[in-house]
Write a structure and sequence with these properties.
222 residues, 9 helices, binds magnesium ion, six-stranded parallel sheet, alpha/beta, binds adenosine-5'-triphosphate, 8 strands
Length: 222
């Protein structure tokens, strides 16, 4: 049975896919049979492109399937809102079934949420409740910029209050850095005594970040 890891975050656009693809590649290179899944992706119309999370995650692990999100929605909105506009049903139960199916044949299953930890995946479920249902650990991705300590500690407290294990916090470089960029990991460790914190600087591609994921792997599999 695989270890399931939900790649969640403090917000949308914080680097979940960037970190998830790098982590998937690092796991695959270490010899773990790894699958990375995006259950639901909004703002996607027509042919699947290489810009999509579901596709980028698959390029990370080099998996054959799946190569796109399990459900794609047209409107760039929270999934339940986008689904209502399209009059389609979100198949949360199917997503869980597919993820558990891969967990039976793999070593590691990475699952990227949509938005942040409490962002709705359906009108009932969030990344947090999905992690609970899957008995998953969470890797919390946060943007390495000013304000992130508040968002990160709020998320850490919600995880703790709900008994969901936090494997690691990963700060990923924002598109525009500020004076806090590169300092948030140390500040968070100092304030919380939580030690499993990694930082990914600005890089040309997620492939380059894969070697930085070694300790994150250790924290997940320990
Ligand atoms: N360390 C980094 N170096 C360079 N670019 C990065 C880094 N981290 C993230 N990015 C870029 O920032 C943008 C947002 O990252 P990403 O798509 O991974 O966020 P996300 O949290 O998955 O967003 P969403 O909520 O839409 O799924 C992307 O263009 C990504 O390539
Ligand atoms: Mg993403």
């Amino acid at each position: 049975m695989a270890q399931i890891v939900v790649i969640s975050g403090t917000d949308t656009e914080v680097g979940k896919t960037f970190v998830g693809a790098a982590l998937g590649r690092a796991f695959a290179e270490r010899g773990y049979k790894t699958v990375a899944i995006k259950p639901v992706e909004s703002g996607r119309v027509g042919e699947v492109t290489d810009e999509e999370d579901g596709r980028i995650l698959a390029m990370g692990t080099l998996q054959e399937q799946p190569t796109e999100a399990l459900q794609r929605l047209k409107a760039p909105l929270a999934p339940p809102d986008a689904a209502d506009l399209e009059k389609v049903k979100l198949e949360f139960g199917r997503w869980i079934g597919v993820i558990r199916g891969y967990a039976r044949t793999c070593d590691i299953v990475l699952v990227e949420g949509a938005g942040g930890l409490l962002s709705p995946l359906t009108w009932k479920e969030t990344a947090l409740s999905m992690a609970q249902k899957l008995d998953a650990k969470v890797v919390l991705v946060a943007s390495d910029k000013l304000g992130t300590l508040n968002h990160t500690m709020l998320s850490m407290q919600v995880l703790e209050a709900n008994d969901v294990p936090l494997a690691a916090v990963v700060f990923s470089a924002p598109s525009e850095s500020d004076r806090s960029t590169g300092r948030n990991a140390t500040a968070l460790a100092r304030f919380t005594n939580f030690e499993r914190i990694a930082a990914v600087p600005g890089m040309k591609s997620w492939e380059m970040a894969a070697p930085l994921m070694e300790k994150v792997i250790d924290w997940i599999v320990e």
